[in-house]
Each structure stands twice: as C-alpha cells, then as structure tokens.
C-alpha cells in the first residue's frame, strides 16, 4: 500500500463549501482507502490505498465529494516521496523562518517560468518566489495575508489550466510526517 495526502482546494473557507472532516474521513473510508486521517479543517487528509495513481485517486475523491456534498472541489493527491522531495528542495532557509513566512503552492502539473514573466521580482522584495517540481515556493516575511507577491501570483491567468492550492510550511512538513508510513 502507498501512503498519500489529499489536498482539497477552497473548503471550509469563509463559510463556503463546508465539509466536516469526520464526514470526509467516512467518505474516504467508504471509497476503500485505509488509515484515513485529516489534518486541520482546511482540507488535507492522509490515507493509504492499494489501487490507483495520484490522478485517478484525485478524480475519484473529487467525484465522491461532489456526489455526497453537492459542490465541486479541486483535489490534488501526492505520495510521500513527492511531499518529502518538496520539503527537501525548499530554496529558502525553512528552519530559520516562521511558518507564516513560507508557503508552498502545489500545482497539478509542471509550469514553465514564462508564466511568471510579467512579475517583476525586484518590485516585491523582500518577498520572493521560486519554482519547484509542480510546486511554487513563496517567502512572504509579513505573512500571506499581506503579501503583494502572493496576490500577483494568484491571478487566474498565472495558473490557467492548473489546479493550485497553497499550504503554509507547518502544513507542508506535517503532510510529510502523516504520509511517512502507514498512517
């Protein structure tokens, strides 16, 4: 069995797309996933599955959520090896930063640097971003809520055709821990 994390985009935010974690766990167990556990209320779950790949598992879970709860949710599924590689490849000194200063946007596919050509890095300093493997790392010293760079990076045209969902560094690290073995 492989251990995965499911990342759900935009649930339980501002009273929209309410999805209780106990119900998500029950739904995932009903799909045949094992060792299901959720983390926080913002849409991440660790689980094991004997079947499927990340794409088919994401599609299966998204379909089940829509059928059960009546709204669509973008879902990304990533295995432990990928999640650990994202942490290991962090281009910023994560150990020296507060979790609110460092974020990872997980992307459904690879992105070319050309997508970000309109963003002038010097205009946003000291904020910075770097691209990784289907991931974008964002250093925002004053936090995500005050970040002008995060605002520029979240414009719909930037990630057109991709699912993108952002997590702070604490959650990024916790996902690695949750998927490190049979949950």
UniProtKB/TrEMBL annotation:
Protein's UniProt name: DUF1697 domain-containing protein
Record-linked InterPro entries: DUF1697
Organism: Streptomyces hyaluromycini
